[in-house]
Amino acid sequence: MTTSQAASPTTSPTATPSEQDLERHFDEIIARDQRIEPRDWMPDGYRKTLVRQIAQHAHSEIIGMQPEANWITRAPSLRRKAILLAKVQDEAGHGLYLYSAAETLGADRTEMTEKLIDSRQKYSSIFNYPTLNFADVGVIGWLVDGAAICNQVPLCRSSYGPYARGMVRICKEESFHQRQGYELLMTMMRGTEEQRQMVQDATDRWWWPSLMMFGPPDHDSPNTAQSMEWKIKRHTNDELRQRFVDMTVPQAEALGVTLPDPELAWNDERGHYDFGEIDWSEFKQVISGNGPCNAQRLAHRRRAHEDGAWVREAAAAHAAKHSHAAVS
Ligand code: FAQ
Fold first, then answer.
1. Suppose 139 and one of 51, 52, 194, 202 were both cysteines; which one would form an S-S bond, judging by CB atoms 3.0 to 4.6 Å apart?
2. Which of 124, 278, 301 to mutate to test the pocket of ligand 1 (most atoms within 8 A of CB)?
3. Helix H or strand E segment including 208
4. What separation in Å is there between the alpha carbon of 198 and the centre of ligand 1?
5. Percent of the chain with pLDDT over 90
6. Ligand 1 atom 43: the closest Cα is on which residue?
7. Which range of residues forms the domain containing residue 307?
8. Is residue 11 a part of any domain in this protein?
9. Where is this region: Disordered (predicted)?
């Protein structure tokens, strides 16, 4: 069932439903696994959590264009350049779907952008690492898009309708991104020894930051319990991180690269791979603005925003002229 079809709050046709009636109705929709839509009443905390998560997600897609865009002008062939251009454009599209989803909750797009460039809203830690060579483009597709898919496929069942529906399309495109990354790496692994070393080096640098994308461990995640109760999130951070590790180890074996974790080993009893301790102090540094590229990413975004001011002004003037013409 995709839309909220629970019965309306049980009041007489003329009475205004009380706050408790509305809350009960909301809880019923969630309990029945139906969707909350923009017109529906929702608790303030639910709205705030969604705006926080969706805005962070949108900003991640937009800032996430930068590491790979760095290589568009230096792609090794026309084919690789066309693929990379299309991928980076897709990320822009994802950002726009997500800003639109946040707008259905009453968030203002200009304000969200200002909050991003003033560091009042976060974006994913992963995009604060540099892309040092073209193998990084492949590894971002394989690991970063791979982690994004793992995290986002369950969000297609998120309880908020516009977010869940946006995620369906985003996940389809992310799957293509993951495959193009893996195909690029396969090609490099069939190439020269130097190319194979580039792939290994990029894997070594991106593996641990990819595991950090899933967020802090469950015992240190202030938002997970409530977000699971509201069915915004369907799995905890640690569950999804484990799923990603289990999915990725065989892919690394097929590729012929070593994942940089000596503790990585299959655990028969758990039916999962064990893996080493993540450096959470590095994660905290990166999300507090002190990662290798935080300043550069935000400065670039700020500059693009300022350079685009005349386009926004022209679009607003055009819209005003047309609405004036429609009235007169
Ligand atoms: N980076 O209590 P929790 C992509 C923050 S898109 C930065 O566990 P929650 C596509 C968190 O916001 C990648 N901050 O929070 C692509 C919270 O901060 P606050 C983005 C992080 O929300 C590919 C605090 O830590 N994906 O890659 C991170 O329940 C290639 C406490 O954390 C999404 O946004 C982090 N990694 O769970 C594009 C997916 N982790 O606001 C280009 C949607 C946590 O309380 C190229 N989001 N924080 O101060 C989610 O699923 C969730 O928001 C989590 C975090 C799982 C990220």
1. 202
2. 124
3. helix 193-212
4. 29
5. 92
6. 57
7. 19-326
8. no
9. 1-22
Q: Which two tokens stand for residue 26?
A: 């909301």
Number of domains in the chain: 1
Which atom of ligand 1 is closest in space to residue 64's alpha carbon? 42
Tokens of 146: 């791979």
| CATH number for the domain that contains residue 98 | 1.20.1260.10
Q: Which of 159, 57, 161 is nearest to 112 (CA)?
A: 57
Q: What is the pLDDT of residue 17?
A: 86
Distance (angstroms) between ligand 1 centre and the Cα of 217 equals 12
The model scores a pTM over 0.85: yes
Closest Cα to atom 27, ligand 1: which residue? 148
**pLDDT at residue 16 greater than cutoff 80:** yes
Residues 207-259 pLDDT 10s = 999 999 999 999 999 999 999 999 999 999 999 999 999 999 999 999 999 99
Please tell me if the CB atom of residue 102 comes closer than 6 angstroms to any atom of ligand 1. no
C-beta 145 within 6 A of ligand 1 = yes
Amino acid at 279: D
- The SS3 call for residue 274 is strand
Residue ranges of the alpha helices (H) in the chain? 19-31, 44-63, 65-69, 78-103, 109-117, 134-139, 145-152, 161-189, 193-212, 224-229, 237-255, 280-285, 294-307, 309-327
Give start and end residues of each alpha helix (H) in 231-327. 237-255, 280-285, 294-307, 309-327
> Is residue 27 one of the residues assigned to a domain?
yes
Task: Encode pLDDT of 110-166 as tens digits.
Answer: 999 999 999 999 999 999 999 999 999 999 999 999 999 999 999 999 999 999 999
